Amino acid sequence: MRQTRQPSPTTRRGGWVPHGYHLDTHSHTEGQLVYAAAGALATTTERGTWVAPANRVTWTPPGFEHAHRFYGDTDARVLAIPLGLCGELVAHPSVFAVGSLLREVLLALTGRPERRPGADERLLAVVIDELAEPPDQSLHLPQPRDDRLRAITDLLHADPARAVTLAELGRIAGASERTLSRLFHTELGMSFHRWRTILRIHHALVHLTNGRSVTDTAMECGWSNPSSFIEAFTAIVGQTPGRYQADLLAGGPLN
């Protein structure tokens, strides 16, 4: 059995954490990358929630309050980014895609002592270079400020598979379908359908990480059939649900 060890949020190191482990809202004077080499994690800030499976890494700049929750038996890697380097990265919380090179560098920096003077500094420069690409917005789930939107998004968070139209939700929230549709676009930057799809994908990632089958996950997250679920999952995550589970068993992605 793997030994559970909780990684410190302020150091460069890793540790296995149990399913459901939660780090309450906090902030850092340095930047922070958190990577689930196995399992998955959710990072939540005032800008919304990002779910990061093993082909994503979450980035939180200095001073941003955030919380983490881990799903499945998670190999959590935490890398502090010195304040002087944070200006090289985007100035808001984000999630980035993790390719083979970035994965290996993150594992090296968080998995072993520095082998010779300056080695970690050179590896950290590679991390910064690899994160020069624009962040991946596909798994970002923004959270609303408008009370009417919050009322219906809270309902869907509690039951993402709920088969309900925007018009029906409008009657619950006391707003017209047209008003809610406009609010989704102006406040959250996406349609209601897109927001609910990402919410369901977040829940699907958790189910798959916990070993649920693709078919069961599709049904429990609101898809009418596995084919439509596989199509939506692949479009947002970048790989099929089956490949995602296979990567978990293999110890991580090989994109």
Brief synopsis:
42% of the residues lie in helices and 22% in strands.
Oligomerization category of the chains in this entry: single chain
| Helix and strand composition category | alpha+beta
Q: What's the CATH topology name of the largest domain?
A: Jelly Rolls
- CATH architecture descriptor of the largest domain: Sandwich
Query: What is the CATH homology-level superfamily of the largest domain?
Result: Regulatory protein AraC
Order of helices and strands: EEEEEEHEHHEHHHHHHH
Rounded average pLDDT: 88
Radius of gyration: 19 Å
Shape: globular
Tally of individual helices: 10
Beta-strand fraction estimate: 15-25%
- Helix fraction? 40-55%
Indicate the CATH class of the largest domain: Mainly Beta
Number of beta strands: 8
The largest β sheet comes out as:
8 strands, antiparallel
Task: Count up the domains.
Answer: 2
What is the straight-line distance between the termini? 28 Å
Give the uncertain stretches in residue-range form: 1-10
Give structural notes.
By secondary structure, the protein is an alpha+beta fold. It folds into 2 domains: 118 residues, Jelly Rolls, CATH 2.60.120; 109 residues, Orthogonal Bundle (Arc Repressor Mutant, subunit A), CATH 1.10.10. The chain contains 10 helices and 8 strands. Strand 3 and strand 4 form a beta hairpin. It is globular, with a radius of gyration of 19 Å. The N terminus is likely disordered. This is Helix-turn-helix transcriptional regulator. InterPro entries: Homeodomain-like_sf, HTH_AraC, RmlC-like_jellyroll, RmlC_Cupin_sf. Keywords: Transcription, Transcription regulation.
